[in-house]
Amino acid sequence: MQARVQLASRCSNCHYLTETMQHVLFHYSRAMEVWRWLSSKVEANLVTDSLESVLNIMLCRWDNDIRQMVICVVIHCVWHIWLIRNDNKYNGRNSSTQALLASISRSISLSSNLMDCKTRFWNDRRLLVKFNIRLTFVPHKIPKQVMWYPPLEGFIKCNSDRGSLGCPGHSITRSIFRDSKGNFLGAYASYVGIHSTLEAELMSVMITMDYVQ
Ligand SMILES: [Zn+2]
Fold first, then answer.
1. What fold is seen in the domain 157-212?
2. I need a labelling partner for 108 at 20 to 30 A (CA). Which of 79, 88, 128, 148 fits?
3. Average pLDDT of 131-159?
């Protein structure tokens, strides 16, 4: 009777460790070249042991406006690591680091330019320029003048509003209470969790009503 022993797949690069997806994408020597290059390109200390840790650092560093583009950068890095591993394993080819990084840069530039990246922030612009991405600069909004009219004597006026970072997104509500002479009577601001714009607006009204009671 023949005993069947299943052998774990050995890494074709180091011929020592088991070739898991994590090993190929993060610990394979060619993968490490790519992550080192990306770390210096984005001037960040990337923790390159999982896709989640790379994305977490990248997404915290730049504004939501260019979120898609930041994800695109990471995806192209992962895709090229996979391609170069396959080319080496199945075709015996080993392209140079320079050719690999140039190919990643071209792919990032090509696909990001189709996204029409818009940004208001200098830090974001620097990143886009580094990857040769055409950017649309969004000018800051011109402040709108608003007139505030006092309430009738003996009444208190409350102005409330909400703010959300995205929809749905982290939301806050705030209100200010003033009398007929415009005297400040009180105010509050509180974080209400992740909500849509409409939910945050309604919560703002409800919380304000609670304060009034
Ligand atoms: Zn290996």
1. Nucleotidyltransferase; domain 5 (3.30.420)
2. 88
3. 83
- The 3-state secondary structure of 25-47, one letter per residue: HHHCHHHHHHHHHHHHHCCCCCC
Domain extents for the chain? 21-137, 157-212
This prediction's pTM? 0.60
**If you measure from the C-alpha of residue 10 to the centroid of ligand 1, how many angstroms do you get, rounded to a whole number?**
8
Please tell me which residue, 213 or 192, carries the higher pLDDT value. 192
CA–centroid distance, residue 27 to ligand 1 (Å): 7
Q: Which two tokens stand for residue 4?
A: 């069947």
Residue 8 reports pLDDT greater than 70: no
Residues 6+ away with beta carbon under 8 Å from 42:
58, 61, 73, 127, 130
| pLDDT the model gives residue 195 | 87
